[in-house]
Amino acid sequence: MAQRPDLPTRIIDALNSNALSAAVGIISLAAPVVAWAVDHVNLVLIVVLQTVLILIVVVGRLWSNRTHIQLRRTNSIEAMDEPSYYDVIRSQLENSLVSDYRGIADGYLSIHGTDVPWISVALVDALIGTEVQPQRILAIDRTINPSLLTRRRGYLDANRRFVEAGGRIDRLFVVKREDLIDRDFAHDLLSLITHHRQFGVICGLAVREHLRPQETVDTVVFANAAVLIEDEQGDEAYTQGRSTVLFKGIDTYVGHFTRAWEHGMGAPRALHTYEAAVRPLLDAWNPQEAAAIVDGL
Question: Can you tell me the distance from the alpha carbon of 280 to that of 190, in angstroms, rounded to the nearest whole number?
């Protein structure tokens, strides 16, 4: 279910609505006609009414311009893969005090630092509140620090809401061979996967060296509507980090995910094989045995 806008946002939307502007225009035109047709109408009152209505619209526009970013409109919303989804995200950005995302008019966003988690959550929540199909998220997670990913609470909560609303999430953990045969890394990775499974995420595993470079890029595909590409992984507080969001050409990234997910024995089966063999080793780790398991995936 879509989150209801807060009161200030609803006021702004009302003051800037086409319906209010049309009503003011109609009343302004109708008032002199009524005054002419009815003998006992106070003309001063009519003028005051017109002035008040015009001031409401003008003040609303000025307030909106001072407190909200006005983003450049796209020339062709139909150029986006999912116009309705794109318009929801664009409206959220314009109604929020965030950076000036001028690029959205051309179908992309460049986001940095603390804006990355905020946008990530907005992209998930927009799926819940729209009719975009399929209701799915496809994620390639180039996993470097599993314990760090368990602390992305806002994003994980949004994932949980999406699954509870009937959506499906397929998440592929892409990991370097040397990390998969490290005991501490394996422990943290399996804990991360357990955490995702608890709220219904379908998990898979792939060895990074076994995939093509374009299949190891950290991406999240939201239906066929948008893709979030992580250009630089953020730190724990996301004071660093850089990502790009695209609203066009999504099929290319769906293809990258599908090939990586289906590579070899398939990502879910590879994870099951690795997990079943490695969990018993955690108490008495044997790097050679772990290496043999990984090389067989």
Answer: 12
Give how far the C-alpha of residue 202 lies from the chain's centroid of Cα atoms, to the nearest Å.
19
What CA–CA distances, in Å, run from 282 to 140, 193, 289? Answer: 26, 15, 12
Other beta carbons within 10 angstroms of residue 191's beta carbon come to 12
- Spatial distance between the Cα atoms of 127 and 133, rounded to a whole number of angstroms: 9
Distance between CA atoms of 121 and 158, rounded to whole angstroms? 6
| Contact partners, residue 30, CB within 8 Å, separation at least 6 | none
Query: pLDDT per residue over 223-258, tens digit each?
Result: 999 999 987 765 555 566 778 999 999 999 999 999
Is the Cα dihedral 196, 140, 248, 255 positive or negative?
Answer: negative
Tokens of 72: 């450049």
Q: Cα–Cα distance between 24 and 15 in angstroms, integer?
A: 11
Strands 202-207 and 168-175: parallel
State the pTM of this model: 0.73
Look up residue 72 and give its amino acid.
R
Nearest alpha carbon to residue 245 among 139, 151, 104:
104
